[in-house]
Amino acid sequence: MYSLNRCVVFAVSCAIAAVLAQPVRAAFVMSLQQSGSDVVMTGSGTIDTTDLSYFHWTSGNPDIVPEQGIAMLSPAFGLVDVYTGASGITAFGTGGFVTAGTSLGSSVGIYPGIVYVPMGYVSGDALAGTETFGNATLASLGVTLGTYTDRWGSGVHADSFVLEIGSTAAPEPAGALVLAVPLAALGLLARRRRPLV
After folding, report:
1. Does this model's pTM top 0.90?
2. pLDDT confidence of 75, banded at 50, 70, 90?
């Protein structure tokens, strides 16, 4: 019985180590939420540009075009570098062009197949921004509730841009479910052990 317990503990330890050793994938997450009589778009995270292709630079504006899959956090006329190679988001509603009233922070956004980052951006640097669409609702902006994801790259350079519209459940951390089984097994082993008398 003792050797079986040791084998189970060893197996559980190996499973936990394997889950913890998995590389963490960076992501930029943008959220579009109702806030009183306004809609607020916030974004934060990092972007790995290694497997994207630099196209050119341009200026960005704080706007969205749901029917065309465009979402941009940017001070008005903020300079951005344009990278191609992303895929996934082509539209997130039926609404047309809408400009935000206020915007602060990093210039970052998406367009089908394109990722915008601040001019001179260093891959992996932290990005954050917010903008407000005054006297608006998610319905008036013509967005469809849900989670939309652009992906690019492979291996350690695989990355994503996630757009969350409306209330969304927080995703479980990677590996949480995989860890639950080994931890439960350890708990059962500890419970089955009888104290020495």
Report:
1. no
2. confident
Measured between its terminal Cα atoms, the distance across the chain in Å is 18
Distances (CA, A) of 171 to 54, 126, 177, 178: 31, 21, 12, 14
Which tokens hold the place of 132?
Answer: 């407000």
Task: Say what the pLDDT of residue 14 is.
Answer: 47
Give the separation between CA 40 and CA 62, rounded to whole angstroms: 12
- With a CB cutoff of 8 Å and minimum separation 6, the contacts of 130 are 40, 41, 42, 43, 73, 103, 104, 105
pLDDT single digits (tens) 23-43: 445 599 999 999 999 999 999
- Average pLDDT over all residues of the chain: 82
Going by C-alpha positions, the residue among 171, 166, 179, 165 that lies closest to residue 25 is 171
What letter does residue 88 receive in the DSSP assignment? S
Report the alpha-carbon distance of residue 179 to residue 19 in Å, rounded: 7
CA 38 to chain centre: 23
Q: How confident is the model at residue 193 (pLDDT cuts 50, 70, 90)?
A: low
Give the distance from CA 176 to its chain's centroid: 17
Strands in the chain per DSSP E: 27-35, 38-46, 53-60, 63-65, 70-73, 78-84, 98-99, 102-105, 108-111, 114-118, 126-133, 146-152, 159-165
Bridge partner residues of 184 (DSSP): none
